[in-house]
Amino acid sequence: MKNPVRLAIYGLDFILKKAYGVKPFVSDPDCIIRLSFWKASRWIKIAEGLEVEKGETVGELHLWNEQIPKMPPEGPDLKWGYEVAKKLRYSLGLLAQAIEDGLPEAKEVKVLGGEIALPKDKAKQIERLLAHLGLILNSEKPAGFWKRFALFWQNLYSMALIWAYNPVSLRKKSLFRMRRYRVWMSKEELLRRYGGRGGASSSKVLPS
Q1: Please, are residues 24 and 105 in contact by the beta-carbon 8 Å criterion?
Q2: Which of the residues 19, 48, 74, 134 has an alpha carbon 20 to 30 A from that of 110?
Q3: % helix / strand / coil in the chain, to the nearest 5?
Q4: SS3 state of residue 198
């Protein structure tokens, strides 16, 4: 019998994904990202030459928890890390193809981003890995009590998801050492790096 707490987390995750419009853009068991879309409520400076204007539509990247490779019982190793990186690269190729094939929601999108929680001491290592994939990592610096309060609960939820889907990866992670980061990439850079590479057959791309 499945753990009822884990089942409750699965249920909450499903409800929140529906509420925020998170859905797959392709039917492929090796894809580990999904998409939603939102309108920027303010101007966002990401890096030199890359910004989001107020009111602009942003493509939000979400990890597809059910399809992320399971971590071995002894914890993360090079083989597991390589598998995750390979699937992330493959997933970005699938996304580039879906956009090239006319994904309607992405037509006006110029920037894609996603949110992750990382231990502060691992951020530089992850930043280097993401840079090889063309992704920019920015820290979400909390400003004021209520922002810090909200980020605490977001981190707690992230830890709950890790426990539910990939519990081994909780080793050596502390709720109070976690920091939230934004991962960014321009659509132009996505298509330049991953476009035209045939990540999946057109039969796998889901209709809108």
Answers
A1: no
A2: 19
A3: 45, 20, 30
A4: coil
Question: Which of these, 63, 163, 159, lies nearest to 117 by C-alpha position?
Answer: 159
Taking the model in full, what pTM does it have?
0.76
Please state the domain extents for the chain: 4-204
pLDDT per 10-residue tile (average), the chain, 208 residues: 73 76 91 94 90 94 87 72 89 95 92 84 82 85 56 64 67 63 93 74 45
Residue 131 one-letter amino acid = A
Short-list 193, 184, 21, 182, CA closest to 96? 193
Across the chain, the runs of DSSP E, i.e. the strands, are: 33-39, 44-47, 50-52, 57-63, 111-119, 136-139, 178-186
Nearest-angstrom CA–CA distance, 159 and 96: 30
Give the list of residues 6+ apart from residue 45 with CB closer than 8 angstroms, or none.
Answer: 51
Nearest to 44, CA basis, from 110, 120, 92, 116 = 110
Cα–Cα distance, 69 to 82 (Å, whole number): 10
How far apart are alpha carbons 98 and 186 in whole angstroms?
15
